[in-house]
Amino acid sequence: MIKRPDEVAEIIKKFDRAGFNIISAGQCVTGSILGESPLDWDMYTDCPQEKVREMFPEGEVMGSRTTRLDYTTFVESQHVNEADHYDGVIADIITLEGPIEEQLEIYDFTCEATGENSNGSAVDPFGGRNDIKQRLLKPVGSFKDAVKKNPALIWKALRYVGLYGFDLNREIFDVIQANVERAAVIDKEDILYEFTTAMVGDHAGKFLKMVSGLGLLDAIVGPENFSVNPREKKDFAKLCERIDETKKIPIRRLGLLYLVFDKNYDKVLNFLPHEEDTLDYLLEAKRLCPKLYFCKNEEMLKNFIAEFGWDKYHFYDRLLKAQNIVYELNNKQQFARDEIIKVIIREKQPIFVEDLVIDADDIIEAGITDDRDRAEYLLKLLLTPIHKNRWNNDRDKLLKFARGFNRSRIRRTFRNVDWLR
User: Fold this and answer.
1) Which CATH topology does 6-134 take?
2) Cβ–Cβ contacts within 10 Å for residue 290, how many?
3) Which residues, at least 6 apart from 411, have a Cβ–Cβ distance to it below 8 Å?
4) What is the pTM of this model?
5) Which fold has domain 143-283?
């Protein structure tokens, strides 16, 4: 018997009490058998829709045969290194128009075309449960005919490779090979969805290796960009081998892949229609990961955080850590940076303009300038002395620095230079 969420268990109890049978089927059963906690549940019943809607007046009518029950809450990530997600379930209650075995024929793969009655007994006309056990993807009908109607099924099949480590049976593999060109020209939004879903599976490396072997990687990074040098080929092979050892954070794993394509990085990144927030972080990864890597002391780290913020620091820091895992790099630099950050946080060292003990009004009141924009500009320059020495965050000292920066262009220009005597 599959493990059912509380919401699904309550739905089943209601139908049992009303004297109707209800069967869970589709990808929710596949995921449950494999130990996942699916969000979407397809549930088939012999109960008429009129009665279903009496039992669940809160449900959304989705056609003459379907009522949708949405028990989800959206959990927004508090940090870029976390993934947005939904808690709860969405259940589509579908009234059968014939035997359940006929209904299961609509599914694309045998692993989906399996169901479970409310009493826990299996409905498995296509042997899907055995295929799940063997991690073997088989089509319900002719995969060749299905792909003719919907070439996006190629990417759906590959998603099963990344999520669960499925192997493709010979028919599916041959059809994909014969339809590589069609698979590469379907809607980019569809490719992006299947690609990013597969990339956060337990077998993302197997997915990447298979996509590359089938000649479909250029559908992800762009055919005009897919000219790689020997170093990039070596890095890609290493990524396929070890990416599954990194945390399953979508944007981080995307960064690991895109950074492989060093010479065409921006073009590769912009080939698929990523969301603006994703692009914001990834576009700068090629420049800021090395910049952060070479931050070797408190001053350099505080300068980096002041310029780009804590969120970007944490993102690029963790991306560097993921690269260390993938490429088995020396972690000494990482450990040193972690220790410095611990000290900065523990001592609550000033980093941002807001941490200064003075503000623009203080600069104006001290008679250094009567121009507010100039005062704000001088405040930013004062970050240099407090990053060098946190004890410089003193009113008298900061006003003295501000007065010097205001009078002397040379002092402003060379404020980061430590002069030798």
Assistant:
1) Beta Polymerase; domain 2 (3.30.460)
2) 11
3) 404, 405
4) 0.89
5) cca-adding enzyme, domain 2 (1.10.3090)
